Amino acid sequence: MILITYTKPLSKLIGHFEKFPGIGPRTAQRLALFILKQPESTIRDFSEALLEAHSNVGRCKKCFNLTSEDECEICKNTQRNQKLICVVAETKDLLALERAREFKGVYHVIGGLISPMDSVGPELLEIRSLVERVSKSEIDEIILALTPSVEGDTTSLYIGKLLAPFTKVTRIAYGLPMGSELEYVDEVTLARALEGRTNLN
Amino acid sequence: MILITYTKPLSKLIGHFEKFPGIGPRTAQRLALFILKQPESTIRDFSEALLEAHSNVGRCKKCFNLTSEDECEICKNTQRNQKLICVVAETKDLLALERAREFKGVYHVIGGLISPMDSVGPELLEIRSLVERVSKSEIDEIILALTPSVEGDTTSLYIGKLLAPFTKVTRIAYGLPMGSELEYVDEVTLARALEGRTNLN
Predict the structure, then answer these.
(1) What is the pLDDT of residues A61-77, one digit of tens each?
(2) ipTM
(3) Fewest Cβ atoms nearer than 10 Å: which of A90, A119, A125, B56?
(4) Zinc finger spans (C4-type) (chains A, B)?
């Protein structure tokens, strides 16, 4: 919805906000008007934070979690069990598990799910690096925490077969309703799903 | 909700998004992760749009609508009836009326409502400029389109008394439910409210 009554710099800004996920035209307008009301220093800080996060945040060399250093804070944390790896599709899933405060191991973020429909094969995901990581160090258990869907199940089975020769592979329990997004599941359900994980090999 | 697992530039960016109206911690996280996935050029454009809108968008000298020039596009538009002024509290209310596509006159944005509880007196609003504008030029009618609330009614009565010597003053009909925000009322209701306006003097 473009209105002739917006002045150009404002309509441009609203256009940017409309591209964000879950932001409709009215929310975009509200956010843009909010920006105009802020002191200039706040907007400069925000603008710098955007560029800084975008250029400085990369992937952990070990687990592919987001980090601004070589290794992420979870991989560097000696309090966490480095022999227990939880495999997730995306960083947002890792953050959801962290909110559940149930898991004390480390992660491996594969970057998506195998999906022939979207031409996403295993070679596009961080699966080879996972196999390498597991084969090179002593790992007690791999927990697969992927969304319960056709793609999630396919990916779980694929990784399960590859890792079976090296270590124990489990999958978090089907406590999650089918088709739901891991990101939005409540903490208690996620904790239950971790507890009730079942053996795959 | 601050998580130790966010890397600093990311948590800083999330913090900025959390300050936006109507954006909670999870939406802020989703928006920040979305930013990281965008190409750098998009983020540079967005960052520039923020600064440009903030520094270039000011107030119209005539009606105090947002504009990047001296006079806003509505005031400069010769197709619009310059003798019919609609008084609104905020720019977002003006935009809501524009969406209703019912009003063909011009506006005066007073910048808020009289509210003794919040120490907002008439002198903090663009009411003096409105009286001056009405007294200096030939105006057929002033339509007051303020939120139906104690503050809105007070402001309407105050402006109504001040302008009565100069011209006809009307108020949009009470078709709006009490306590609602003008910004969120649907277009049809707004159009009805404009049609059914009543005489104040």
Answers:
(1) 999 999 999 999 999 99
(2) 0.73
(3) A119
(4) 60-75
